[in-house]
Write a structure and sequence with these properties.
With 115 residues, the protein is mainly β. The chain is built from no helices and 10 strands. The protein has strands at 3-7, 10-12, 18-25, 34-39, 46-51, 58-60, 68-73, 78-83, 92-98, 109-113. It has a 6-stranded mixed sheet with strand order 2-10-9-4-5-6, with no helix packed on it. A 4-stranded antiparallel sheet has the order 1-3-8-7, with no helix packed on it. Strand 5 (46-51) and strand 6 (58-60) form a beta hairpin.
């Protein structure tokens, strides 16, 4: 069964860091370009970061460039998002999925940046 399970979110102060994880099952994560997305209250889901299938190329939304890093562990079939220098506007539910031909969305993990 194909499944994506996000974890690692939480409440953090501005300037803090979090690392999100996305455990994939039922398919090989490294065979696909994989992305992190986020959806803030009242807004549409947006693309945050992408890593290509080779793992050698990454791409980021302008709003997170220099602060977020996407990576993966092929042995664990897990995708990560290291988030540093968090800002209020990073508050959202974060999801992982294939960059193309989306799978069913997981439950996401809530990230709240608040003082």
């Amino acid at each position: 069964q194909v499944q994506l399970v996000e974890s690692g979110g939480g409440l953090v102060q501005p300037g803090g860091s979090l690392r999100l994880s996305c455990a994939a099952s039922g398919f090989t994560l490294s065979s696909h370009a994989m992305s992190w997305y986020r959806q803030a209250p009242g807004k549409e889901r947006e693309l945050v970061a992408t890593i290509n299938s080779s793992g050698f190329a990454t791409d980021y939304a302008d709003s997170v460039t220099g602060r977020f890093t996407i990576s993966r562990d092929t042995a664990k079939n897990t995708l990560y998002l290291q988030m540093n220098s968090l800002k209020f506007e990073d508050t959202a539910v974060y999801f992982c999925n294939r960059r193309y031909l989306h799978l069913g969305w997981g439950q996401g993990t809530q990230v709240t940046v608040s003082s």
